[in-house]
User: What shape does this take?
Amino acid sequence: MSESQMLVFWGVVFGRFAVPLAIPRYPLPAIFAALLLDGLDQTLFETFTELDLGGYQSYDKALDIYYLALAYIAMFRNWRNLLAFRAGRFLWYYRLTGVALFELSGWRPLLLIFPNTFEYFFIFYEAVRLRWSPHRLTKRLIVLAAAVIWLFVKLPQEYWIHIARLDTTDFIKTQILGASLSTPWPTVLADNLWLIPVLTLLAIALVLAVRWLLERLPPADQSPDAEAEPAGEAITGHTAPRQFFSLMLLEKIVLVSLVGIIFAQILPEMQVTNLQLATGTAFAIALNSLLSQALARRTLWVAFPAMALVNLGPILLYLFLSPGFEGSVNRNNLIFFVLLLTLIVVLFDRYYPAYRRRHEARESEAAAGRPISPRPG
Assistant: This one.
């Protein structure tokens, strides 16, 4: 593989890792960028490299779960509307359960039964937050938005991808443009110059449609700001130790266990049973929870390496001291697996207190009978 091809490959891989890290701070542009990169990575590889993508597919699926997990964790930091948060939480765990069941069984209809409504619901909420207070979202509107996304967006998309097993870019290339799968995209576009005026007209129509919609929406509460409101004290001000056995610990174990089971099924040569994985995850999470309290005031640049050392250190030491064991597991996959789970745990511990403090305060206001005034963000 040439140097330019290596540059394309590692640029895409770095983007798949780095872009989702911006979701907590810049939710809407970062989730769009992650979604776009997820859809274009294979096309970029096919167009600019001669890579055998067989081994990449497993990592691609794992990275999909990774960026959606960071989007869910970003909800702890940013979402002020409790009803929308609960809806998003349900949609996330519903999809995550479906993906875990699919990876364990291989029965593809499960991906249609458990559609990824969460991703577009996240985008819907953040699009509203861009100009309006999320407290405008009533229970009826939240349910309606989730239902429309579920029935009219995700079900057709899940059927297209997972049941019909059609690839959109391949379908366009072969069925609409009449080219073969092996034809490079620059050649396809050069042979179909009529696409330029068509795409231009579609772009103009889209802009006009968005403008028409915006003119009929309620007046904006704020000027557009892609950056989420600072979480402030809720993240950095852990002055009192948290209760060890709590709903936070339980949810973290469930979240990381489900993600871990999915990763273990997706990544090749991850030879571990689901019982071993769940037991090991619960133990590791308990240990990490104790350490995270000590690191609560530290930056992510300190917390993540420290947690990674705790999680990876014993494994790497055992591999070093037991060379015979190293051959029974793919070391690179193991390191990839542990680092992704560690990052999820670190961000969960960092942002969950923001959700807990915010919504405890809101529920206290409601219990006291005081009106809950809309707040930005």
Observations:
- Residues 280 and 315 are 12 Å apart (CA to CA).
